[in-house]
Amino acid sequence: MLYLKTLIIVVQLLSALGVIGLVLLQHGKGADMGAAFGSGASGSLFGATGSANFLSRTTAVLAAVFFVTTLALTYLGAYKSRPSAGVLGEAVTAPVAASAASVPAGVSTPAAPAAASKPGQDVPK
Fold it and tell me: Which of 66, 100, 119, 121 could form an SS bridge with 15, CB 3.0 to 4.6 Å?
């Protein structure tokens, strides 16, 4: 389970970095960072509008991968494993409090300690 979480975290980190890089490379209205790398050039590998189309589709795919890995990590983080059966094959349970186990059913227990010993009782209102 630990290897699966680690793998999903690595995929999520790579997809997040990819989305950041692709968003910075895309050609905006003000010809921001994308123009410096030639994404708006008409003689590029993808043609005049092909690079914008390719970058936007790749960004969408990486964003989808990021969301899927986020949901997977949320699911794996909320997963609670069952208690181990242990060496003897019995499920491990929490021990019962000694005071509750030693008192018979018909016997009353002594009264609670004085009210002054409760926290917050000695604070003036």
Answer: 66
Q: Per-residue confidence of the chain (125 residues) as pLDDT tens digits?
A: 789 999 999 999 999 999 999 999 887 766 545 555 655 555 455 555 556 688 889 999 999 999 999 999 999 888 777 777 777 776 556 666 655 555 556 655 555 555 556 666 666 66
The helix/strand count (H/E) of the chain reads as 4, 0
Residues spanned by the domain of 21: 2-78
Residue 114 resides in a domain: no
Cα 125 to Cα 106, 113, 114, 119, 121: the distances in Å are: 40, 22, 19, 14, 10
Split into its structural domains, the chain has a count of 1
Q: Global pTM? A: 0.50
Taken as a whole, the chain contains a residue count of 125
Q: Which of 28, 57, 26, 53 is nearest to 39 (CA)?
A: 26
